[in-house]
Q: What sequence folds into this?
């Protein structure tokens, strides 16, 4: 039932975006009447159908055609969002054309051109490899043996039919080049189809570090099937932290909880920070892996020193960050909550559109220090 409601909302928003963009573009001379208007209607109809049709064809075994339609539909998804925002901005400024009525059509044309140029830039940004962002975090009382511990933080790879082996190969190479002591994955390694990602297991098994690879479930692992996702992560050689803790250096514990939102949306409440911390002795340095950047005050009060999150993608395509920030004020980067440091990654992949605009993908390399 939850999925049916979610699907209905998504398709409703998708349809409204197409109707609005079509309505405003139809006021421009090339699309005002005759063949131009029918060409616009046809193009919008193809754009509307491409992504869902691609998913259907892939599921039916037409993998090549399905991937092609899904990819082109996903790019159109990002372009449509930028067109919608740009044309809506013109309507706000001109009150729907009531003001500046003589120049409103030219403003709409200019907005459409800017939006399409921004879409091309975002598509190029999505093709680029993630950058490695280095962070140092001071943990008071950190043992000498743990000083300098390097943690590679991966989040939101969203591996599947759009981002596959080529993208994963680049990510693994970047992690290898950073030479971390431990690799952690804060969810959404799987996009939505665990079966597709299972084909990438040989590559996933090359993701290694001396202290191991530790992972927690994100919301998309729940959508793909939580038990199948857990089995996939374990088959890759990763340690899955389900309200568990592991001591990675003397006095340093990495604690992980599954995504609370994803588990709640699928009807299984599994996240339990108190249970995860139960076996950690007092006075230890604690690094918390949690997919979504939320419940920071509770984590800080529980004695967490460093909280690592993903999920937001930093907004992924500007200005979508304005909407994301209303739910997740800790959007991307470094935050402080009492004595706890929080690092929110923009993610090493993308969801939906394979595009990034003013929110580049990243891998965090976090070094723990005993003093500044």
A:
């Amino acid at each position: 039932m939850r999925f049916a409601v979610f699907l209905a909302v998504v398709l409703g928003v998708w349809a409204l975006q197409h109707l609005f963009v079509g309505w405003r573009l139809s006021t421009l001379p090339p699309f005002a009447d005759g063949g131009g208007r029918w060409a616009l209607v046809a193009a919008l109809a193809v754009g509307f159908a491409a992504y869902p049709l691609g998913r259907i064809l892939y599921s039916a075994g037409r993998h090549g055609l399905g991937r092609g339609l899904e990819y082109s539909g996903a790019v159109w998804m990002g372009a449509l969002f930028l067109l919608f925002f740009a044309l809506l901005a013109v309507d706000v400024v001109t009150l729907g054309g009531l003001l500046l009525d003589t120049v409103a059509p030219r403003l709409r044309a200019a907005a459409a051109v800017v939006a399409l140029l921004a879409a091309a830039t975002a598509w190029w940004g999505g093709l680029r490899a993630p950058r490695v962002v280095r962070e140092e975090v001071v943990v008071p009382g950190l043992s000498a043996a743990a000083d300098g511990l390097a943690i590679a933080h991966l989040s939101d790879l969203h591996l599947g039919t759009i981002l596959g082996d080529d993208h994963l190969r680049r990510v693994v190479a970047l992690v290898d080049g950073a030479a971390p002591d431990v690799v952690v994955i804060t969810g959404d390694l799987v996009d939505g189809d665990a079966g597709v990602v299972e084909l990438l297991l040989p590559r996933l098994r090359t993701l290694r570090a001396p202290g191991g690879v530790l992972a927690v479930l994100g919301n998309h692992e729940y959508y793909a099937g939580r038990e199948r996702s857990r089995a996939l992560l374990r088959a890759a050689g990763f340690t899955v932290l389900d309200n568990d803790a592991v001591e990675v250096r003397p006095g340093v514990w990495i604690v992980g909880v599954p995504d609370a939102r994803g588990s709640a949306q699928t009807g299984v409440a599994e996240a339990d920070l108190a249970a995860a911390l139960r076996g950690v002795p007092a006075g230890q340095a604690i690094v918390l892996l949690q997919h979504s950047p939320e419940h920071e005050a509770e984590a800080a009060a529980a004695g967490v020193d460093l909280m690592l999150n993903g999920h937001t993608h930093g907004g992924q395509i500007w200005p979508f960050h304005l909407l994301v920030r209303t739910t997740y004020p800790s959007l991307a980067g470094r935050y402080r909550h009492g004595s706890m440091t929080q690092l929110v990654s923009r993610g090493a992949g993308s969801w939906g559109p394979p595009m990034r605009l003013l929110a580049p993908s990243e891998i965090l390399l976090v070094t723990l220090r005993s003093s500044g």
